Amino acid sequence: LFNHLLQHLSTSSEAGREEALVGNVNKLMVTPTGYTGVSRKSHLVFDACFESGNLGRVDCISEFEFDLFIRPDTCNPRFRVWFNFTVENVQETQRVIFNIVNFSKTKSLYRDGMSPVVKSTSRPKWQRLPAKNVYYYRCPDHRRNYVMSFAFCFDREDDVYQFAYCYPYTYTRLQHYLDSLERRNLDYLQREQLGLSVVSECVCVCACMHIRVCLCRCVSSLPHHTVFNRIPESPQPRSSSPLLHLFMLSV
């Protein structure tokens, strides 16, 4: 009974700490437990205070392993999926394991071979991590939440590395793209404000009308074709956003 009570208290305490994740880490240097000396290379500095960033807490398990806690979706603490953060102050050839420990999804493409993306200041193009270095599993140490762990080796000390759930697509990028379309004064494109988000950002609707290209052969016999696609305007981008960007380019 005593052990069961201790386990319950530990679980409740961790749950409370997760609910308290109200902001992103900001240039947070993480040192091993009990370390009191001066900071040095290999003491990783985490940051997520930028658009589409998400990392609420970092626990140092050892010099080589870190538990990372992501913040929940806006107004819905049940959903925790997106992560996007940077790491710097690394040591050349330093190997680490990052554990994203509080995923809310039971089904994920990470179980089927998908892997996070990474880039650095000297290699600004996003690349996927090797699938063999990524693991997705239930973890008894974290209330049997799904955990995604990935191994990585830093190879350049002066680089800042950025890791994300998938290719980020920010609200600012979307607005710049829609602005560029408006400047072209296209006869068939109409952009209007549909409403405001919970943080008072504009939610737009774009109508592509009278396009001569058939968008969907299966409804070609109908007098009018209406294709409705939504680009999520959220602090946590979705993998569908770049695809819808390409769709807009095609029409």
Automatic annotation (TrEMBL):
<dbReference type="Pfam" id="PF18027">
    <property type="entry name" value="Pepdidase_M14_N"/>
</dbReference>
<dbReference type="GO" id="GO:0004180">
    <property type="term" value="F:carboxypeptidase activity"/>
</dbReference>
<dbReference type="InterPro" id="IPR040626">
    <property type="entry name" value="Pepdidase_M14_N"/>
</dbReference>
<keyword id="KW-0645">Protease</keyword>
<protein>
    <submittedName>
        <fullName>AGBL carboxypeptidase 4</fullName>
    </submittedName>
</protein>
<keyword id="KW-0121">Carboxypeptidase</keyword>
<keyword id="KW-0378">Hydrolase</keyword>
<dbReference type="InterPro" id="IPR050821">
    <property type="entry name" value="Cytosolic_carboxypeptidase"/>
</dbReference>
<feature type="domain" description="Cytosolic carboxypeptidase N-terminal">
    <location>
        <begin position="47"/>
        <end position="133"/>
    </location>
</feature>
